[in-house]
Request: fold
Amino acid sequence: MSRWIRFLLALMIGAMGGLFYGWVISPVEYIDTTPDSLKIDYKSDYVLMVAEAYSVEKDLLAAVQRLGLLGGVPEENVRQAVLFAEREGFLDSDVALMKALQSALASWNPALETPLP
Amino acid sequence: MREDRGPWYLLTGLVLGAFLGLMYAWLVQPTQYTDTKPASLRADFKDRYRALIASAYMSNGDLVRARARLELLQDEDLYRMLSEQAQRTLAEGASIQEARALGMLAVALGQPPPTVAAPQQAAATQAPITPTLEAPVLTPTVTSIPGETVGISETIVNTEIVSATLPAASSTPGAPNRTPRPSATPTSEPSPQPTPSPTPGAPFALQSEELVCDPSLDEALIQVMVYDAAEQGVPGVEVIVTWDGGENHFYTGLKPEMGLGYADFLMTADTVYTLRLAEGGQPIPNLTPTECETADGARQMGTWLLIFAQP
Reply:
């Protein structure tokens, strides 16, 4: 066996060792993640919580700020959550709350909000 | 000549291969943080998640749902985490409503879960499932104006019996549980005599007013303790002290070592204070620095201890 072949074999064994270490011995631990990486189930429940709070507080700015934690566009996050909720059979009352928030967001004009001091 | 190099090239290959493997795992195809769970959130995001759970609880009063959501965060002690966050929120001067929501949820979770026996006739007609009952939430309706004797009429708003077992979110194996929902068929009838639970907004009434002569406290203090119906301290309750030409607002829960429902105020000599809770109830007048005598006969400034509780 030529020296090059043995070298390449060692290289492959080393690579496998590196992958084995990275994926098995010391696998990635999911810590300190951000809400935008949450699974759609949890995102949908998060949106539902925002909708539940909004249904009583009627504070759309607070709702938008809470939705901002999910990253992206709030309206889109709510739309995705509503779709998920309908597909997965959330309670009608819960879906209604989310749709109410969706409607409120559709007519929301940030420019009309009173700026915070 | 070539034989003198020995097997070092093999070690070089191994090290180089390991290096390439790690580079591939970390740079070429790095870990994608997708489909994570709330438990993996960074601490500050967990705080905001927890606060939202509390706000949602204040809106719907659904303790089962709130508990299920909190459990997603995998905190070791739900009550302690909520209480500490409530106190932290107050100390940082953030939203009082948020602190109060956190405190109320902590108080609700801190209560022992009531166990209600299912009526025999109901059990006989149900599927053989051990019913898990959730106490109906009572919403007190204040029927008199603040400052007078308050009457409360209880209205059962949540008598659906819900299963503590959460339905699966989807058919995907390992998918997280979705928001807890009432089972389609009640597994039992509600208790005819539901156990009241503290409800956000319920009034606090003065239970006792006492001049305490504590040798370890030689300051003219007003100490306020606020308890809920379950005799647990309630953080985030706004207390208003007024005097001739001045007013001060402070909140319970800022000294957690003294209890969640504790707050105090340092009086100035020759000033008469009136204290009341912002949520209403009768004002407590004529609070003024007063001398008292300790057990060993020494004279010192006493402390006014005011205890408020939900009826």
Q: What stands out?
A: Residues 114-199 of chain B have pLDDT under 50 and may be disordered.
